[in-house]
Structure formats: structure tokens, C-alpha cells
Amino acid sequence: MKKSELPSLARTTLALVLALATVGLGSAQKYADAAALTAAIDARPEPATSQATLTMTITTADGQTLTREMQTWSEGTAKRIIKFTAPADIKGSGFLTITAADGSEEKLVYLPALDRVRRIAGGQQGDSFFGSDFTYEDITGLDQADYTHELLGVRDGPTYVVEAVPTPASGSSYERLVIEVPEATLVPQRVEYYRAGELVKVLTVAGLAEVAGYTVATERRMESVRDGKATTVTVITQSNLVLDEALPADLFTERFLRR
Amino acid sequence: MTHVARFALQHSRVVIGVFLAVTVVLAISATRIETAAATESLYPDDSRVDAIAEELQATFRHHDRLLLVTSGDIYSGPTMARVAALNAALQRLAGVEDVTSVATAKRMVDDDGFLIVDDLIPRQAPGVEPDAEELAAARAYLAGSPMYQNVTLVSSDGRHASFIIEMADGLDANAFAKSVVETVRTEWVGEYALAGQAFTSMELQSIIGRDLPVLGGLALVVIVLMLFLNFRTLQGTLLPLALILLGVVWGMGLFGLLGGKLMALTVIGPIAVMAVASSFIINMLGRYYFELAHGAGKRVAIDRMLGETGLGVIVSGVAISAAMSTFMLSSLQMVRGLGLVALLGVLASLLASMVLLPALLNVLPVPKHVGDPENPGGLARVLASLGRLTTRRPRVVVLTAVAVVLAGLVGVPRIVTDTSILAFFPEGGATRSSVATVEEVLGGSSTITVWLQGDLGDPALLAAMEAYQHDVANLPELGAGQSIVNVIRALNLTLTGEDALPRTREAVAQELLLYQSSGDVSDLTRFMTLDQQQGVINFVAKSMSTERVAAVTNEMTRLAEARFGDLATVRFTGNPLLEREIEQAMRHDFVISLTLAIALVLIIDSFVRSFRAAAVTIIVLLSTVALQYGLLGWLGLPLNLATMLMGALAIGVGDYAIHLTVRYMEERRHGRDPEQAVMHTLYSTGRQILFTALTLGAGFGALAFASFVPVATLGRLMLLTVGLVGVATLTLLPAASLRFLRDPHARVHLSKELTHEEV
To answer: Which domains are delineated in chain B?
Structure first.
């Protein structure tokens, strides 16, 4: 089974997070420690490119909803472009992220109504991703070196429970993450995010599917939590997934962003 | 009555023991009554405005606000560092949802193609102060950005900084405000002022805690003094004192057992009970001493006290209870609480007068020197003059009274209603000064929110909202509005350099999309729902009378119709509108309680005595009430939560006037002609009526010293009312009896052996 290539917190973060896990595991599980688990995840091949249609629905506690549709293309983890297709008043707006070899990141936004490409200031990992419960950090993930880890335990399944603590230098907006990974899929099914000792968000990954030999999460649900209660929820579903297909050379450019 | 009396006399010590035990239990209950200081306790049960506010709170995550203004040289490094420290300390307080101040303000900057939404005052490391350049930039941004055009985070002279503290739902507002005060005292060196619902709740609780013991004690002292002047014996002073205290303790204790909570108006209840209980006892004990003074033995005196005066006191007690119970029909929680305390206390006093008093008199020795309470003493000449006046010129007396009442009634249309919560506090007091300071800096201390439903992505609606904000800001009591329009205008200025709203729907949507990718989404959702179908405009409002609130909301509605047309529907909410609802509930209660009090007292009195006697008496009382409200208009005093109660209170406590009517009827039955009957009635009952009026006046007069302004006004007016009832009872009532009650027929005849004549 191959690993899926998704612009998701779930897969990207998990792969990084688990790398440093060191706690020994019980005899029933396949991976003796977190390092072994991470190595197994890292060993899985990734698609070189991906294309998908995303539907992002934000729902507030009192039931208001906002749905946005977008088309995404990505090449590895370094390049990603998003073009909004609905609702009509934001159709054509686009978002381009390019990570250079030195790790620096450029984010560009195109707004057709203003006919201008604008940069978004970097270094604000905790900012909301277009008004959703996902942040840029959730979407892009951090490097594995940005975390220290501890394996908290193994549940029936088996499912590995890992705590990931971002290093001070990471710039993460979180204090720690608690991630659950089923051994069978090696795709995280649940992530809890903590700030100042409080649970602030919960990510649930559902609807795993097989696409071109990769295991793909077709639905990710992020709940913001306050005082133990969900406030807003963002559900991102992806469809029309095409993996490992060659993408046009000028796709990740300002010119395509404007198109 | 005979059975009760017999039981009380046969088992006096048992009766005393039972009363004592119950009193101890109820005293414990009374000490455990909690205070409900939250201003929400003032709002009507079925408040439509409050329902909208709760819906709004759920939709936009709006919270109750506490407003804080601190003074100092704000744009200096050390002071701004203290602002940031205070902001952080407030944010850490339990129950704080959010704090908005210059320390949390954001700026939008187009920096070489980057849209930056960043802290207005850059966050500093501990111990580091912002430099002069940063402060100057912040000052310039606050002065120029449409985002902060209508919000005063720092006053234009740089002398005051404001903090808008949003509270979590369901907090104890009083405790919360206290924790804020403690934090400010710790973190801020310099002056500060507070305003907002939590602040007024804290101040209200402080008043309630102060008023009840102080006013209760004062009323008690003055009543005891009146009792001593009346009876001039230790027994005649201490016995009533014990019974008065019992009435208060039982009333409050039972109120506590029934789950009642102390509120600002509750203080009226115990004082009304004191006054009423003392009037019961003046009549009962007066009769007892009268019998003793005329040679009766103790047992006979007690029998006659119960048999003759007891009946009158019971009828009065039931009538007063009925009048008090009308307050329990109110939709205002604090008026119901007052009604319940008064009702329970009056009934307890009545029970004590009928059962405990005879038992106590039975076990206590007869005083060595007993004066005749019906001997007018030094008042003889005055009462005789009154008798001559009313018997020789009854028509003149009645016509004079009618003229006075009519003159008073002319003042009724001049009555101004005012239920604004700030008017509850004394002018020039600390509470009003604090709110005035906040209003001076922020332009107001409360918020009127306009809730729109429409397509907020439509530039036409946004333009209408902006125009509406300008329109409403021209009303003197309202400040500028704040809405999504301010954010969009600031965003458009930053992105395009054009100080205007975007012209197309797409531009609006895409600029907001960009903001969502750079700024805090809650900056938008506090003003507009995600689907852009609902939005709010918040207008800061100064304190104003409820009449002015009505005018302002009417004007806001008219302007909304003109500006929005079919673009949006609007609803209004906010504390000033809640105060107006209180006024509407109050007017309703006023009519209901006064009408019912009149009807019930009339029915109860006429059932036991005669309809004509009851009607003549109550017409006299009504004249007093009319004059009372007329004076309210003439003196420019507002009709408020407390003064609206005084009509029904006057009808209730003024029912002692019926004692004069009863005595007059008794005199007529014993063959005296009307004029002789009036002369004799005035001579024999005048002193008691005068002392009853003085005692009632002493009780209610104590309320004049209340810190809660409506109660203080009520106290002054009740003092006047009780005086008017006393004067009317001794002048108008005899004259009216001569005109309309020359040949009375009592429904219940007093038993022959208990009549005054035979004694």
C-alpha cells in the first residue's frame, strides 16, 4: 500500500511528528517504538503530483454554514495552488504557495475583482486558512525537526497514540498535539491540538479511499473547541482526485494564478 | 375569634413558646437569604428585547460588557506598557471572554505588496516599553483608520484609555466586577472609571447590603419612639416592638424559605410590615389600655380588645394583605418579591396581634399606671375645632378637598416616567460619576444594537448601512455606529488606497476573503454572519430617560425604514430598550395593582362593614392617592419602579381610616345624631388616628434615607401620603360621612356587650 499525497495536516504532520517517538511498545504491535513507526510511514512512497476538487464547509455553533469550492494542484510538498470555483463572488480567486529549497515560503493571493496579486505575510502559522478552522500550519505542517515526541500508548487495533510537542524555534501556534494512528493504514485518524493546556481543536480524518494505489482521506473534519464544546466546524472533502499525473510546467506561477 | 382568644388565653405559655420557636427558625432562614443584584432581575419575565439579545448573543457571540476607562499620559512608553500589562491581567481573569483596548488593536498595512494585519502596538518583551515612534504611529493610525473611526480606544487628548471587557455567560456579575476592580487597583496607578451592566449590578448589591439594615434600624427606632409617645409605658413600647420584629422576621424568613432573593425594592417590604404591624398594635393595645383605664379587669380587657378592635384589625389586615398581594401579579421579579415579603409579614403581624398579643398580655402584669388612649389630652382643643369645622361646614370641607384634588390632578399629565437604571443611583454619587467619566470618553456607557437581515454582500446594503450610521450618529444621545462597514472600508482603503466602500459584490467578497487569510476571522464574525445574511450595527448610547429612549428608538426605526427599505429587515435590542420595557411593564403593573387594591379593599371592607361606609372611606383614600400622583407631576419627580407602588401602598396602609368610619357608625347606632356622632368620633379616635399616621409616617419616612433613589423618593412621598391620609381622615372623612353616610347600615353589628358606650 502506498502513502497518499494530500495537502493535509494529517499526513504531513504525522509523518514528521512520529519520527522522534521513542517509547517502547507492547509485544502485540508491529512497531516497537515511535521511531520504527515513523520510519514505516516515511518508507511509504508519495505521489509526485496531485489534483483534486475540495469542498470546504464551515458551520458555526448556531448552524450558519458557508461553503466554498476550490480546485487544487500540488507538486510534492513544495508547491501548491488553490483556485476558488464557488461561490460566484469569489470565483477565480487563487492561492499559491511555493516553498524554496532553503525552507522560505512565498504565499500569493490573486483577487480578480481587484485584478491584483498580493502577498500574504508569512510567519503567521496560527492564522485561519480562509476563515476556516484550519490554520496554515494545519494545512502545510511543520518539519519533523520542529517536534519532540512521546508515545503515550497503544490502543486496540492497534492504534498508536503519540504526543508531539513543537520546539520553541518552530513558530508553531500550538503547545502540543496528540495524534492517533491506526497501524493498519498508517494514516492518522484523530489529532487533538492544545494551547495553554486547553484542548482547542480536534481533527478527525474519515472516509479513507484507495486511489491509484494510495490510501486517501476523503474527508477531514476540524472542530474548534471551547470549554469542552465544539464552536465551529470545518469539513473539507476531496473528490476527483488524480495522482501522479504530469502537471503543466507553468502551473505554479503568478500568471496561472491570474488565469 | 372567640375560640382563638380562648385558646391563646388558656395556653398562653404554649402559644408564646411556639411563636418563639418559629421565630428562631425563621430568623435563621432570614439570615440566609441571598442577594440578587444582577440587573437582569429588573427585567420583565417575558422581555422581548432580552429574547432578541440572547438570540443575538448566540449568533454573533456577543457578551455582556464591562467598560473601563483609565487615566494617564497614555501615549508615553511607561503608561502604554501598563495598559498592555493591565490588558493581559484582565484577559487572565476567570470569566473574561475578550478584552479590547489599544493593546489589542490591529492595523492593516499594505507593505510592498504584503497585506499585513498586525498588532497596532508591537508586542514587547517584559520590561520593554514601546518607543516614541511606535506610539506616534499608533496614534496616527487610530486617528485615521476607518476601522477605529467610531471606537475610542484612546481619547483624542491622549489622557484616557478604554478597555471593553466581555464577560462569559452566566457569571455572577457582581463578583466579576469586583475581580476587575481588584485587578485594576493592582495593575494601574492613577484614576479609573467603570460602567456597564456588571458595574451597576455591583453597585446595586452594595446598596441593597447597606440599605436594608440601616433603613430597617432607623424605621424601628422612630416607630418605637412614636409608640412610647403614644402609650408612655415600657410595656406599651416593648410589646409592640417585639411584635413588629416578629412580623419582619416571619415575613423575611418565610420569603427565604420560599426561595426569595433580596433585591433593591425588597427593602420596602420589611418597612411596610413594621408600619402596618405598629398600626395593628396601636389599635389593639390602645383598646386594651382603654378598657383597663375604664376599670375593666385584665381578662375582660383582653376579651374586649379581641372582640371589638380585633375584628376591625382583622378586616384591615386582610384588606392590606390583599393590597400587597396585587404586587405579586407583576411581571417584574423585584416587585413580586416586595409583594411577597409584605404579604407574609402583614399576615404574620396579624396572626401575632390576634394570638400572641393576648397570650403575652395574659402572662404579663397589668401596668401600674395606664392612660386612656382615647383621652385626647392636649389635642382636645384641636380635635374639637376639627369637629366644629366638619360639622358646621361639611360642604366647604368637601368642596375644598375636591378643589385641592382637582388642582393635584392637573399635575398628573406632567408625570415623567423614568426607569433608567442609572437613575436608581444618587446624582453626584460615585456610581453616576464613574459612568459619566466613561460616557465622556467613550461617548456612552451602553449599546443599542441594530440587527439586520439582508444580503450583506450587496454593496447597496453596505452603503445604506454606512448612511444609516451617519444618520443615527446625529442623534444627541448616540455615538457613531460600528459595523462590518467600518472593517470593509478600512480594508478597501488599505488594498486600493480609495477611502470608500468597494463598488461590486465580488470586490466585497474577495477583500473579505483576503482578510480571512491574513487577519482574525472573529473581527468579521462579530459584525456579520458567515453566510453574510445577518449583520449588526452597534451604537454606543449615553444614559437617558426612558421617555427619551422611546423617542430615540422611534427615530432609529424611521431612519431604518428610510435607508434600508427592502434591502434589509431590522430589529433593535440593547439595555436602553430593556429599560423601556421595564417602564411598559411598570405602567401595566401600576394600573393593575392600584385597580385591584381599590377593588379588594372595597370588597373586603364592605363585606364586613357596609358598602357605603367602605365606599366613602375609599373615596377619601382615592382623593389622597390622586393628590399624591398630582404632586409627583407638579414636583417633577419621576414615576419609577418604587413610586408606582405608592398608590396601592397608600390604599393598603391608609385603610386605618376605616376605624373612624366604624366608630362614627357605632355612634350613630347608639342614637347620636350625625353631627354629634362626628364630634364624638373625632374626640375619641382622633388621638389614635394621629398616632397611627405618625407611626406609619415614621416607618415609611425612613425610606427617604435610602441610597436607591426610587426608594428614597417613595419614602418622601409616602411620608407626605400618610400625612395626607391622616389629615383627610380627620377632616374630609367626617365631612363626607355627614354628606353621604348620614344613615349608615352596618352589615356586621358589634355585639352589644362589647360596645364602647357600655364600657
So the answer is: 1-32+233-370 (1.20.1640.10), 381-410+609-748 (1.20.1640.10)
